[in-house]
Amino acid sequence: MATDATDGLLQMMEPDFDDVCRAAQRLQGQAHHTPILTSRTVNERVSAEVLFKAEHLQRIGAFKFRGAWNAIARLDEQQRRRGVLAYSSGNHAQAVALAAREQQTTATIVMPEDAPPAKLAATRAYGARVVLYDRYNEDREAIASDLAEREALSLIPPYDHPDVIAGQGTAAMELFKEAGEIDTLLVCLGGGGLLAGSALVARQLSPHCRLIGVEPEAGNDGQQSLARGEIVTIPAPRTLADGAATTHLGHLTFPIIRREVSDILTVSDTALTRTMRFFAERMKQFVEPTGCLAAAALLEGLIDVSNQRVGVLISGGNIDPDRYARLLTEQA
Ligand SMILES: *Cc1c(COP(=O)(O)O)cnc(C)c1O
Question: d(Cα 242, Cα 288) in Å, to the nearest integer?
Answer without folding.
Answer: 9
